[in-house]
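Researcher: Re-running this chain for the archive, since the previous output was lost when a drive failed. Same request as before.
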Amino acid sequence: MSALIRHSTSGIPLFFVVKNDLAAWQQQQPTFLQNWLNSCDFAKQGLALVVDPQTGALSQVYCLVNSLDDFWLAGDLANKLPAGLYQVQACEQQLEQIALGFMLGGYEFSEYKAKGAAKAQLAIADATLYARLNQQANAINLVRDLVNTPAADMMPQHLSQVMADLALTYDGRFSEWVGDELLEQNYPTIHMVGRASENKPRLLDLRWGADDAPLVTLVGKGVCFDSGGLDLKPSSGMRNMKKDMGGAAHVIGLAQLIMAAKLPVRLRVLVPAVENAVSRNAFRPGDVIKTRKGIMVEIDNTDAEGRLVLCDALTEAQNDDPQLLIDFATLTGACRIALGTELPGFFATDRDVANGIIDAGIAVADPVWQLPLFEQYKSLLKSDVADMANCASTPFGGAITAALYLKEFVEPTTPWVHFDVMAWNLRSLPGRPVGGEALGIRAVFNYLESRFH
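Model: Regenerated structure tokens:
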């Protein structure tokens, strides 16, 4: 349970005032309050802590906002308010978004430093809402924690433990294939990418739900650290590559949310977990690999390794004929160039699913943007010695060509969605501190919840 909310029916009243309404609203307030707000320059400061003149105790808080519809209007308050218990004065619908923004803004990754001071809390009277808020905040913060954890402590074996613990918590089933077992069970590209590391490559597999429920399969790129392989990244490009398992973190967090909410689906989560390291047995540019699907792939660049581990996992994912297949990956810098770092791009083979996810994201202030699977670019993946190359002959349209590569491993009958996400906040915004971030999973969960209810 989050320490930022408490199941309680009382707290210091917390009010939100819309800027455009401030003058008219203030004239209707008692003289004492008008004078207090003027003395603390509320119109400029945007936050007023009102003290009871009799007791000297904090009695009310007023926060100035642009709009009550802004999901992140309380995103900074957990760090601005004095420690204490506050009760939002708003309707239930507004309360849910205000409280979740408040909780996400109060997140702090403190595993490797002294714990911060106690923070403000919100009182949530409704038990159902209290549980739902905890489910959502815990899932988002799990993604953040996994991405923020240094690579030395978040290698394939650590991801394995996280998924095994989830299976135990929610009565699921967990299995994995490790090291040379990947070759024995025909997952050659996962093994090839991860074989140079002392941290053995793995394919992690979590299953949950009733056998007769509709099957939703999630696949997440779990490159726990990406040096670039023999096509070594520069130091600046390698600095934050602990986040290259962000796709895995996203599907793990989404899976936790699905299981905690007990959605009536049959869930499968596949994470190909590797470290793309440099050693005497590292795979090389020019190598050719036969994938699980049988497609022969020439390695043009060892730094295009994410699609290699994903292609075997996507092939495996379709053995059970899922009703919906979704993958998340920190796949290309090209998607960041196209959309920036804060708007996740996705590709989809089913228009209704794509539109449903877009609408679901808008409804919960978790926007996503669809990019095209432009088939004309498929020829850019041509290889002279194999069926295809692992990356295109040009950097242009890199997010599209990466998605087209993955599409070769998805059956035409499988509704498939591919998310290309940053998984990292480069700047601090209300509710979204710098560091690991979950992008698009509230949109997907909202879609799943409305589709499978």
